[in-house]
Amino acid sequence: MHHKKIAQRIVIVIYVLLSLLYLTWRVSFTLNPNQIFASVLFLVVDMVMCFSAILFVVSLWRRDRSASFNDSKQFSIDVFVPTYNEDCEMLEATLRHCLDMDNPHKTFLLDDGNRAEMKSLAEKMGVGYMAREKNTGAKAGNLNHAMTCTQGELIAVFDAAFRPEKEFLSRLTGYFHEDKVAVVQTPQFYYNTNSFQHRHFSDNEIYSDQNTFMHLVLPARNNWNAAYWIGTNAILRREAVETIGGIPTDCVTEDILTSMLIHGKGWKTVYVDESLAYGLAPANLHEYFVQRLRWAKGAFQILRSHNPLFQKGLSLMQRLFYFSSVSHFFEVGIKIVYYLFPAFFFLFGIVPVYPYPPIIICMLLYFGLTRLILELITRGRTNLILDEVYSIIKSFIYLMALPAFIFSKNIRFRVTPKDSRKTMSLRGIIGPAIIFGFNLAAVVVFLFNFPMMSKLGVLVWIVLGWCLFTGGIAFTSCYYCFKPLIIKSNESRA
Q1: Contact criterion met (CB below 8 Å) for 32 and 353
Q2: Burial 26-54 (b: 16+ CB within 10 A, else e)
Q3: Is the C or the N end of the chain the one with fewer CB within 10 Å?
Q4: Confidence category of residue 10, pLDDT binned at 50, 70, 90
Q5: CB of 128 within 8 A of CB of 227?
């Protein structure tokens, strides 16, 4: 076994043991009996986040699962480009890239908007055109309808904004020589790296809030046969989809649910971490909000109606990883406790742990050590500051999706807007603004009561530091949300 792999496994074991020890200590010694509700709430959030992190690092336990590739067998391939309200110029570019792919295939434009201009575009491009009188089932229903009208053994799916590279099919179809492979998925790369989810460090180093998921989480899940279809940039085996009765239409994130049901039937998936298609990321907060809210609602629908922990046919690790994927949105939502409780200490006197300074110091040491260990395990592929900036932005978005857990049915599928003129979203900014406001107020209260506060010992200074850090992160989140308005204002003055 390679020395790096051994070292990584040792670090993973240390992390798991350290986290279990921390949780045991938290339950046994840190509850504040005088404020039991706040204390238990804080403990529950801590436990959820710890177990999530444990599952994440366990998924990185390196296993040798390299999918075999053999391109000697030829398949009939249908390429589906579903659309609802995207413009002609965007779709023309996507269809042109689809037509240019190297392997023999048939390309179809699936128009759920039933628009005359889309039909004309299909005729102009020489691709098949399909439309429905009623767009029931949204994207899933659109794809299912197209499947009834075609016969290709493999189906490549591209969202309207994603443009495949010429070698997309030739690089991926060879994995289907293994009869049980149902899905071959590639990551989502973007050509508009000035989008809301991107931040530039330099010309060669660009942060995206999906980097960890695309290039760390999914490759790790692939080693456990638990990677899944993410809606676009993928090839599906028709037979596998037919064994589950088609793509499920009772969830607005039909991709992950399809994958889970397919895995339950014993099929395999392959994730290939290569840049083989480029798309359009949400350009602004409004588009970002619509997309992330839909993802969260779909995850809560799955948790309610198709809980992975009880899904038939899945292995233990598949159950845990699918559960981790859909519960992730709940975890990010409840992280708001970490962002607000320090401020509540100064504003309302809430102390969610036993007010003994060594307890706070031990908690900080654990957080610091775990962050260091995660950096070692992930080899620096995460970014502490920007990950938290986007976590604050998403926390309220995901909380707004929680009603989907209670009212699972009849949730409308909202297509992510493309090039929307509406750059801002009041519902999108409310979370960062509230978190920043509370932490700013806490700092102000501290300064106005400095003589008294300074006598309370090290606990006050630790919580103040926490408020300053969270407030700074929340301020950055607010700045990113308002930045387009600031730029527009400066341009109008010029």
Answers
A1: yes
A2: beeebbbeebeebbeebbebbebbbbbbb
A3: C
A4: confident
A5: no
Q: Is the pLDDT of residue 422 over 60?
A: yes
What does the alpha-carbon distance between residue 332 and residue 329 come to, in Å, rounded to a whole number? Answer: 5
Cα distance between residue 247 and residue 226, in whole Å: 18
Cα–Cα distances (Å) from 298 to 63, 142, 329, 404, 414, in that order, read: 30, 18, 10, 8, 11
Would residue 78 show up in a list of annotated catalytic residues for this protein? no
> Which domains does the chain possess?
3-61+328-493 (no CATH), 77-281 (3.90.550.10)
> Against a cut of 0.85, is the pTM above it?
yes
Residues 200-246: tens digit of each pLDDT: 887 678 899 999 999 999 999 999 999 999 999 999 999 999 999 99
100: tokens are 């240019």
3-state secondary structure 116-132: HHHHHHHHHHCCEEEEC
* Residue in 46, 111, 209, 255 annotated catalytic: 255
366 is written with which tokens?
A: 């654990």
CA 464-466-469 angle, to 5 degrees, is: 110
112 is catalytic: yes
The letter for the amino acid at 395 is S
Q: Which residues of 431-468 are buried (b: 16+ CB within 10 A; e: fewer)?
A: bbbbbbebbbebeebbeeeeeebeeeeebbebbbebbb
Q: What is the pLDDT of residues 115-126, one digit of tens each?
A: 999 999 999 999
Closest C-alpha to 320, from 223, 224, 182: 224
